[in-house]
TrEMBL record, chains A, B:
Pathway: Carbohydrate degradation; glycolysis; D-glyceraldehyde 3-phosphate and glycerone phosphate from D-glucose: step 2/4. GO terms for molecular function: glucose-6-phosphate isomerase activity. The keyword Isomerase applies. Keywords: Gluconeogenesis, Glycolysis, Isomerase. Its EC number is 5.3.1.9. This is Glucose-6-phosphate isomerase. Belongs to the GPI family. It comes from Gracilimonas halophila. InterPro entries: G6P_Isomerase (IPR001672), Phosphoglucose_isomerase_CS (IPR018189), SIS_dom_sf (IPR046348), SIS_PGI_1 (IPR035476), SIS_PGI_2 (IPR035482). It comes from the Bacteria.
């Protein structure tokens, strides 16, 4: 179960303001459930959990295993919602050093020429034993026309065709729209394997579709456990969403009070990328019509030594949301040393987890005294099931909170503006 | 030369407000030069450029070469200003894939047990040829008592002592205070090599001292060129700091106008970590007494697909600062393909740099029309000299801007608050 504690934030909000916001949250949840709000044609991220497609999970899982067995390198080619979810889950559940499977690289998420050029060189270099790297590529784009992703795919596809000739079609997997979009043309022509992005699921809500699940499976993570974690959260909140209604109401009241920044902070370096996923999910959903609390990401205690000063004493426009893991997932303890030259023997025998927990509690206390409202979201242990639950927790929170602002959580009209200007400048 | 263009921001500020802020900036620069402002005992970051220590540069450079020749892994053990500068420069100027020297790892920048435990396992694993990894460790801490760094150093030192016995002292280099601090005790005892952090240079201003320079040298970057880039910027701005005064005045006026967030954005993925360095430099300097514009970091066009919607149409409390590289540093061009299945043949023959530039221009136009003030900081090419110039540009800008707010740019009293609470909870 995901715990949500608004205790360190609630005291900053008057009862009247809170209960008014709570009413909005209740209405927002009704809108979601009844499919009566704006953008309600985009609620497929709920439907896939209400009615799991076990056959597809099985199919993705076995392709993941096939690729794990064969590939040295697996490239995820996508931008925004097409890679942030996979990256979040993979970073949360994979080793920091070394690897237990294919190296997973990301491409198609910017137009940096140096990055792609150096990636090409790297892919062409043989392994230490002199043999060529075995490379698989997953291109992820509903429309197939997103510039960043299409450009990288064009370049990488050419490399794979040079390396593998006709067999290159074995090395390329497309995740795209069922029928529409530019990728379907090339899939028909080349015979690439294909997974479908449901039409009613937007990019930032797509991590539990093949968009996220195939890369996650290639990383060796049990996607069935992940997915069914989300399913259990779905069922729980269909029954009782009190936690989420409180959180959404609180965040709405803080928004009304004029706070402009929400720092999503974790004390586990594994969860930094999850912060990036939440940043897109919330930011792209709420940031419309002049509204929203800007979501930003921090990793503590690292960033207490960069942003900590500002959070403690700078301009008072911040709130924080801590993403917490309660139980240790490492046994590392502090060793005792002779002479105690660094004065740390008082910690000897204690685990890093315990010390990190005290750092978190100290930070909660200090920032709270510095008038920063803090929401605490916690899971018991860091595993695929709980990450699945957390994913649905934040998807549902986003839907409720953004509806409660009176905004459509499922479109992104502003993203088109830079594209239009760019395409005009490119002479398209 | 670093170019600074406030044209896309100036129009949002009334003349009266701007000229009032400009006066404050002029006074702030006088305070810096005359050493009459609060915290003026911390201006060593200017003095080291006024009077370069060539002998020390030489010494650091040759140790860097020695380590490059011997080490497989080089660990930078430090937090905040003790690693962010080195990471910024190394990421800006190193290849994305593969390596041209020792692998550079970071430790001591958080209390994550899983990270450190997995690092230990990785360090102990032999190389592909079966031989042991040759590991060097640079611990960086003025006081030697910063918890995150001291804990990791205790653990890593034990590993090196097990691996190398008495020779471990050859593998450990300390960067610390001249005389005070806990590391000096262990240096005397063990005979570690030592570099000195000048007493009058604070952590976030220390990248051009041994703090940053040794790791940067180990990464194979010419530290003399980097350093003398900064020296030339120092001389230039001692002569004429008009650009910086304009920028500081503009940012002050935007601060007064109630904007709360400054998105430092680059279109070059190489420069993402430089954003992290700026975030600490500015954020920890300005975020006091309820003041400051919260600095946050984005990489475009990547984050146009996550934060772009909010920046374009969300709550209007943002400004942006673009860090720009004008000339291409990659020759990668778009290839032509038969059939034009992805409709990109209209770009065939054009460089990624050119397309990325159009993305930047389109973004500038779109965000500007969305009422976001944009400051553009640009360098001609991405190299060590220009990064050195950019470092001093932002150090000086920080000093001027923060003095113009009426705040001491050189202390960080708020960082102590979480530490105090944490140490109490740990029973120290």
């Amino acid at each position: 179960m995901i715990k949500c504690d608004i205790g360190f934030a609630r005291k900053f909000i008057e009862d009247d303001a809170y209960f008014k916001a709570r009413k909005k949250a209740d209405n927002a949840l009704d809108q979601l459930r009844d499919k009566t709000g704006p953008g309600s044609e985009w609620l497929g991220w709920r439907d896939i959990l209400a009615d799991p497609n076990d056959a597809e999970l099985e199919q993705i899982g076995s392709l993941g295993e096939e690729i794990r067995a064969k590939a040295d390198v697996f490239i995820v080619c996508g931008i925004g919602g097409s890679y942030l979810g996979a990256k979040a889950v993979i970073d949360a559940l994979s080793p920091h050093f070394g690897s237990n499977g294919p190296e997973i690289l990301f491409a198609g998420h910017h137009i940096g020429g140096k990055y792609l050029e150096e990636m090409l060189t790297y892919l062409k270099e043989p392994k230490e034993d002199g043999s060529a790297k075995n490379i698989y590529l997953n291109v992820i784009s509903k429309s197939g026309s997103t510039l960043e992703t299409a450009l990288a795919f064009r370049i990488l596809r050419e490399l794979l065709e040079k390396m593998y000739g006709e067999d290159s079609s074995e090395h390329i997997i497309c995740t795209t729209s069922k029928e529409r979009g530019l990728l379907n043309k090339v899939i028909d022509e080349k015979g690439y394997r294909k997974f479908i992005i449901p039409e009613d699921v937007g990019g930032r809500y797509s991590v539990l579709t093949p968009v996220g699940l195939l890369p996650i499976a290639v990383a060796g993570i049990d996607i069935r456990t992940l997915f069914y974690g989300a399913v259990s959260a779905y069922n729980q909140y269909e029954d009782n969403a009190e936690d989420l209604l409180e959180y959404a109401a609180l965040r709405n009241a803080i928004h009304e009070s004029g706070k402009t920044i929400d720092v999503f902070a974790t004390f586990e370096p594994e969860l930094t990328s999850l912060g990036g996923w939440i940043q897109q999910l919330l930011g792209e959903s709420e940031g419309k019509e002049g509204k929203g609390i800007f979501p930003t990401v921090a990793t503590f205690s690292t960033d207490l030594h960069s942003l900590g000063q500002f959070i403690q004493q700078g301009q008072r426009s911040l709130m924080e949301t801590f993403i917490i893991v309660e139980k240790p997932f490492s046994k590392l303890r502090v060793n005792e040393i002779e002479g105690d030259g660094d004065n740390l023997n008082y910690l000897a025998g204690r685990s890093f987890h315990e010390i990190n927990t005290k750092a978190r509690e100290g930070t909660t206390e200090a920032h709270s005294e510095g008038d920063v409202p803090i929401v605490r979201i916690s899971m018991e242990t860091l595993n695929a099931e709980n990450i699945g639950k957390l994913i649905y927790f934040f998807e549902l929170l986003t839907g409720i909170f953004v509806y409660s602002l009176g905004v459509n959580p499922f479109n992104q009209p502003g993203v088109e503006d830079y594209k239009k200007a760019m395409y005009r400048l490119l002479g398209k």
